[in-house]
Amino acid sequence: MMSILFVTLVIVVTGVHGYSAFSIHEASIQDIQKAFSENKLTSRQLVEFYIQEIENLNPLLHAVIEVNPDVLHLADKADNCRDITGILHGIPVLVKDTISTKDKLNTTAGSFALLGSVVPRDAGIVRKLRRAGALILGKASLSEWAHVRSFSIPNGWSARGGQGKNPYVLSGDPCGSSSGSAIAAAANMVAVSLGTETDGSILCPASYNSVVGIKPTVGLTSRAGVVPVSPRQDTIGPICRTVTDAVYILDIIVGFDPPDREATREAARFVPDGGYKQFLRTDGLKGKRLGIVRNPFFNFSKGSNLYHVFEDHIDTLRRGGADIVDNLEIENVNVILNPMQSGELTALVAEFKQSLNVYLKELITSPVRSLADVIAFNEQHPHLEKMDVFDQDALVMAESTSGMGKEQRDAVEKLEKLSRDGFMRMMMENKLDAMVSPDWSASTVLAIGGYPGISVPAGYDNDGTPVGICFAGLRGSEAKLIEIAYSFEQMTMVRKPPSFKPSKPGSGNII
């Protein structure tokens, strides 16, 4: 395997008809478009490279469930229309296997129960990607049913996709549920990808795989045509290697979508004229008020490696011109972080059953039409679904609910109050532009209020394990978060390609 990985790191595309060599490894969208315009690269060559990388690496990493059988044809069409301009024209995009595509690809949430089902249409965000000229490369692996199958399955595992592996330390946690989207982007199996988040499913894999993940305000991107968990918390966002690439994708996928009318209409007011790329400013930290909640997010011992890493990063933020407001508190934060105490689990399992049943009934054809059918399928096909290894207790818990009754409505009201009196009050009373937290530790705080966050690579353990830093804000604050995240990224430039280390012998320094 190491010889394959070495070739992966040095491979270049050598064009025909006078094209000069161009290295695709670690190339950004801008790099690729420049190579297109200078006749150093074609969309076909780019797609062929990614397909080869998937063939080389996927047996090890399990990041991709399917490759689009028509993607080379789509690349040829893009090459024949090179007079059409647009930042995504001819660029392959990998989407999580919960995002519907009306083509030859399956949409299965990693489960054999949905294999062969036919979706009625492209997901709203896929339509926008196609209109922008992007090519759907394939479906990324994930934690099965967006981690709602079982409370015991490991991050990144699905029956169809297998066990996703962290490309930095193969025995490390890839996190989930958008594991494949992050692994593939990190390992250069694609330049850009899409994930979904209900609670941590973009921010966590982005952090653990040393890539950038944007979790948008709920409703800023359409959820139509996406296998749901909770319409109250679900959101779709980009996972890429750089803040710039993530923002380019965000600009394409935000905005009103009739099938997700209520949420996208409300959030569309947050989208700025001219899009978000105007906020890619190297001086974006200047004048920003950033809050630090030490307990519980920075609760490291003063002699630990992580303590020094994030203290250094807080100093970096200060050097960038930010005003750090330290030692803040979020009211009832320990309740918020406990899904059983907060009511989040009570609400989510009921919302999952209700929304999934609607999704399944709208499919043109499907082996299953309800959550009860999914559970029965798993019981009838235990070998396919590895029922002897992992159970389906989360699915069974969801099926036992009977809609959004009083208990569930009370849980939602409690979540709204916890969010309003906690994160929102802290942000507003301290006039903060963002809260800074290590890793994905604050994801639940953001999830219950529909708030946005951006994870940026922050460092590596001495065994190569990545860690990210998260910038989070109130609903609609993406512009400020992008300024902060981009400025931090440009000041630190922490990210490096994966090392594919086979083991994790122990903890050590972060660099």
UniProtKB/TrEMBL annotation:
- Signal peptide start and end residues: 1-18
Q: Which domain of life is it from?
A: Eukaryota
Q: Which UniProt keywords apply?
A: Signal
Q: Which residues form the Amidase domain?
A: 46-481
**Keyword Cell wall biogenesis/degradation in record:** no
Q: Which Gene3D superfamilies match?
A: Amidase signature (AS) domain
**Pfam families reported in the protein's UniProt record:** Amidase (PF01425)
**Which PANTHER family does this UniProt record tie to the protein?**
AMIDASE (PTHR42678), AMIDASE C869.01 (PTHR42678:SF25)
The name this protein carries in UniProt is Amidase domain-containing protein
Q: Which organism is it from?
A: Papaver nudicaule (Iceland poppy)
Provide the taxonomic classification.
Eukaryota, Viridiplantae, Streptophyta, Embryophyta, Tracheophyta
